[in-house]
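ARCHIVE CARD
Drawer: 12
Card no.: 0347
Subject: one protein chain, sequence and derived structure
Cross-reference: see card 0346
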Amino acid sequence: MSAEAADPGAPLRRRSRPRIDLRRLGRVALRGPVSRDRLPDAIGHVAEAHRAHHPDADLTILRRAYVLAESSHRGQMRKSGEPYITHPLAVTLILAELGAETTTLTASLLHDTVEDTEVTLDQVREQFGDEVCYLVDGVTKLEKVDYGAAAEPETFRKMLVATGNDVRVMSIKLADRLHNMRTLGVMRPEKQARIAKVTRDVLIPLAERLGVQALKTELEDLVFAILHPEEYKHTRALIAAAAGPDAPLDTIADNVRGTLRDAGISAEVLIRPRHFVSVHRVRRKRGELRGTDFGRLLVLVTEDADCYAVLGELHTCFTPVISEFKDFIAAPKFNLYQSLHTAVVGPGGAVAEVLIRTHRMHKVAEAGVVALGNPYAQDAATPPSEPSDERADPTRPGWLSRLLDWQESATDPDTFWTTLRDDLAQDREITVFRTDGGTLGLPAGASCVDAAYAQYGDRAHTSIGARVNGRLATLSTVLSDGDTVQLLLAQDTASGPSPDWLDHARTPTARIAITGWLTDHPEEAKPTPSTMTSLYDGGPGPAEPASPERDAQATAPARTRSGPRATGVVVDGPDAPVRLAGCCTPVPPDELTGFVVRGGTVTVHRRECPAVAAMQEIGRAPVGARWADAEGRESDAGCRVTLVAESFGRPRLLADLTEAIATAEAAIVSATVEPPSEQRVRHTYTLQLPDAAGLPALMRAMREVAGVYDVSRAQHPAPAG
C-alpha cells in the first residue's frame, strides 16, 4: 500500500539509505540506557537525516527528548505489536528528511507524551523551553479534534486557529497522520475507510495549502488505495507496465541534457515519476495514456535567472506547447510554490512536461513550510519575548493568515466551519494583477467581489464596479488567471454591499464580510438588482453590434435635460423632446446639428462630433438646431460638458484637478480615471457649469495644474455610468 513505487522521492528519502526498520529500532530502544556521550542507536537515523539539512545542528536536545519519550512510553505498544516509541521516532524521521529544524524535531519526539503518559506540559517547558512546550501543547490539542461530520465546530475552530499561530504544529500533525496511514492495515476495514475519508477531506487539503507536497502526495496514494482499491490496482499495473529502460522520457531527458550542456548552462535533469493519484487523474482526463504521461522532467539550477535561461533554450531547440506554460516564479502560488512549467515536443512527437526550478525552490516545493525553519528564531541582539497565543509568523502562507482573519470575523462557529470546508474544497487558484503592480491570489471562479475584499477588506463595502483588462466590468464578473483588475470604490463611505453580492462571492473573506455588514444593517439589506447589472453598460460579456444611434443615446439620466426649453436649444420642425448628446456635450457657442432617435426625441450634437458623420453614413437626415437667444433660455440652466485631461502621474494629481474644477464653480457629475499607461494618466470629467462662458477659463485652470499637458473637449462616446 506504499506510494513509493510511484514516486520514490515522496518522503525525500535518499536512495543510498536503506529503508529503516522501526520495529527493530523500537526493540533496541527497550534494551536500556546508553552512554551519555552519544545518541541512542534508535535515533541515529534521525540525527543523520537532520545533519544532512542542518550540518551544525546541536543534537544534545534531541538525545534528551528521546530519552524522555522512550522512558515515558515504555511498556506501551501499538496495535501493530510494535513498541509505541516507534511512532514518535517515525514521525520525527519524516520531518527530519523534509528538513525540519531542531525545535520541531524535539517537539515531534514528545508530541504524544502529554496526551498518553504522565508527563506534563510544565515538565516539558522546564526541560525544553517555551517553544517546544508551545508546539507539544498545540499538537496535543489537535489530537482531541474529531475531523469528521460530527465535529464540534467551535472546538475545531479553536484547535485549528491554535495551529495557525505556528505552522510547525500542523507540520507535526501531518507527519503523524502519514505514519498512521502507513500502518493502517492492522485496523478493521470500516475504520480504515473512516480515517481515510477524514484524511482526504481535511488533512490533504491542509497539506496542499502548507505546500508540503511530499506528505500530500503520499497521503493521497494511501487514501486512494483504501477508498478505491480496484482503481488503485489498475493504476499500479499501468505504472509497472510502463517502467523499463526504453521509456520515452529517458530519450527526451538525454536530449535536454545535451541541449543545456551545449548552451553552457549547468543544470541537473531528472525524471520525476508521477504518483498513483496523478497518473489516475491524467488517465481520466485523456483516456489513453501516453508513454510520457507517467512522469515529468525536472530541471534543477542554481539561480532564478538560470530558470529563464533553461526555458529559453528549451523553447528554442524544441517545439513548445505554449498552452502549458506557467510562470510560478514571478507569481508564486498561494502555498509558496515556485517553478516554471512548460511542455515540449520530443522525438517522434512525444510531449514531455517540464518543471524548471532552483534547488531552493525544489526544497520548498517538496517540504513547504517545513523547509522554512523556525519562523520565530530571534537574533542574538534581540531580547527574548514571552510566547503568546497571538504571534505574527512572517513565513505563514497567505491561506493561513486569511484563516486567522476569518475566525475573527465569523463570530458564528458554524459559519466558520462551513466556510473553511468550502475553501478546502477549492483545489485550484488563480493570480490576478492589480494596477499598482501587486497581485491577488484567488480561488478559481472568483469574481470582482472577491478581488475587492481581498484588496480592500471592509472598504470594499463601497465597491461600485471594476475595470478588468481595461474594460468596465460589473462586480459579478468572473476573473481568469492573469487578468488585470482595478476596483472602483464610491466616495460615499456609508454605502454598503447588496445581498446579491453573496451570489458571486467565492472567498470566505468576502462572504463573511458581506454577511456581517448585512446582519448589522438589516434595513438596508434588500436586494438591489441594478447594483450588479446596471452600474456599467457594455462591460465584459456578449457585446451588442455597434450603433451610432445607440452611441448618440448613450447618456445616463443624470446627464440629460429633456425638453426644448430645458436644453436651451431650438430645433427645426414640430415640438419634440430635445437631448444634448453625452458623447460630445455641446455648450454655447458650439455649432449644432440634431437627429431624431427612438421615441421622437431629437439628440443634439456638436457638428464636429464623430457621431454626426456616422449617422449620416447610415442615411439619417440631420435636423437643424441652434442655441436659443438669451431671453429664450432659463438663466439657471447652465451647461454640461465633458472634458478629457491628459497628464503625467504624480501624487495628489487628482486632488489638485478637482480643486481647480471646484474653484471654477463647476460641479462634477461623473469622473473616470483610467489605469496609468507609461506613467501617463487620462481623466474624463462630465461637469455642470453655471455658465458656458466660463468654460475657456476652466480649461486653462486645469491645464495649469502641474503634470497636466492637455485638456480637451470629449470627441468620442462617453462611457455610460
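Annotation on reverse: The mean pLDDT is 77. Residues 189-209 form the longest helix (21 residues).
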